[in-house]
Amino acid sequence: MVMPFDALSDPTRRRILDLLRIRPRLVGELVTELGTSQPGVSKHLRVLRAAGLVTVRPEAQRRWYELRLEPLAEVDAWLTPYRELWNTHLDLLEQHLEENP
């Protein structure tokens, strides 16, 4: 099984998710948007499906790919303590800059 973090490590897969965030898309649309080969896009979609980040909805001869939000919520939950740490450091930097113009 592919974990969401593994799938998100590739910039092309992140770009696919960005496109699917806007609306469901067909493989051909993704190929056009990414400027990549159809087999390449299909490979990335297989990884994203294995990670549970996208689903496919067959419609006659076409396959619509859609974003699944649940695995991204897990990623967000994991990032929360790091985000809080980062915000704390930014607050300290802001305080330092205000005290030392």
Automatic annotation (TrEMBL):
Residues 1-87 form the HTH arsR-type domain. The keyword Transcription applies. InterPro entries: ArsR-like_HTH, HTH_ArsR_DNA-bd_dom, HTH_MetalResp_TranReg, WH-like_DNA-bd_sf, WH_DNA-bd_sf. GO terms for molecular function: DNA binding; DNA-binding transcription factor activity. SUPFAM superfamilies: Winged helix' DNA-binding domain. It comes from the Bacteria. Keywords: DNA-binding, Transcription, Transcription regulation. This is Transcriptional regulator. It comes from Sinosporangium siamense.
